[in-house]
Amino acid sequence: MRLIDGRAIAATIAEEVTAAVADLTAAGTTPTLAVVVPTDDEATAWYVRSIERTATKVGITCRVDKLDHPDGETITKHLDALSADPTVHGIICQTPLPPGVTLDDVGAHINPAKDIDGANPVSLGRLAAGLPTYAPATAAAVLEILKREQVPLAGTRAAVVGRSTVVGKPAALLLLAENATVTVCHSRTKDLAAVCAEADVLVAAVGRTHLIGAQHIKPGAIVIDVGTNPTSDGGLAGDVDPAGAERAGALTPVPGGVGPVTTMLLMGHTVRAATS
Questions:
Q1: CA dihedral of residues 135, 139, 142, 143 (deg, nearest 10)
Q2: Contact 171, 183 (CB under 8 A)
Q3: Is the confidence at residue 43, as pLDDT, over 90?
Q4: 102, 100, 98: which is closest to 119 by C-alpha?
């Protein structure tokens, strides 16, 4: 079983993004990303710092707008203002959100042309219709890894475990767009292991530590582990049990797999938005 180096893939993308940013800046446009943070969650703060560092590395201006104990109206008004600001090219709204406020509620206030993480339901609808849009970056990272690894997708059988609008559904749509035959699995799927074991490409995106074991993996399958589950020692564990992953042909590790590619694709989406 071969481990797929997400950090190396992200480094390659970083070189491409850096060159594109330099060209845009020379032409008079500095790509600018706005990150709205409506929470005091420490894990979110860590992730936002990671985004800031990555943006600085590739030359993108990153502004972090921290909202102190906001209600839903405060968040949506702020997103409306950013959507109308011509100096801002990409917008992300971090979670968790205040009680009673959903990502659909606030995402609808992000201009789809600046919705670089696919939070607006319009973006998901355009993805389903095969129209130009920004897919959620984590789902896009799944496809980016498969393409960079030159995994053939047309005609292959793929299984996606998880049906969230953040990863599972958009990843399935992206795989369909590449002519894979896709099965979306979830908590009510009967005999999950048997369904997964038929897949040439298996995407684990359910958020349950080590749910996927050897019995779920077809020998030689490409396994993309999207799980980022906190462990008692402060680390992260994936949805795939490493002890059972030896059957795979290749696997993305956690950490160091999908995560670095996701962050770098947010930068790439920002550059794309700045050129639109």
A1: -30
A2: no
A3: no
A4: 102
Enclosing H/E stretch for 270:
helix 258-274
CA–CA dist 194, 197 (Å, integer): 5
Strand (E) or helix (H) holding 182: strand 181-185
Stated pTM of the model: 0.96
**Average of pLDDT values for 24-31?**
97
- 8 Å CB contact between 31 and 271: yes
Beta-bridge partners for 160: 184, 203
Residues in CB range of 51: below 8 A, 6 or more apart = 33, 35, 62, 92, 263, 266
Split at pLDDT 50, 70, 90, the class of 24 is very high
CA distance linking residue 64 with residue 38, whole number of Å: 11
**Residue 264 and residue 249: Cα distance in Å, rounded?**
25
**Nearest Cα to 184, choosing from 209, 157, 208?**
157
Question: Strand order in 90-93's β-sheet?
Answer: 61-66, 32-37, 90-93
Confidence of residue 42 (pLDDT cuts 50, 70, 90): confident
- Asked if residues 162 and 168 have their Cβ atoms less than 8 Å apart, the reply is yes
Query: In the predicted model, what is the mean pLDDT of residues 25-44?
Result: 95
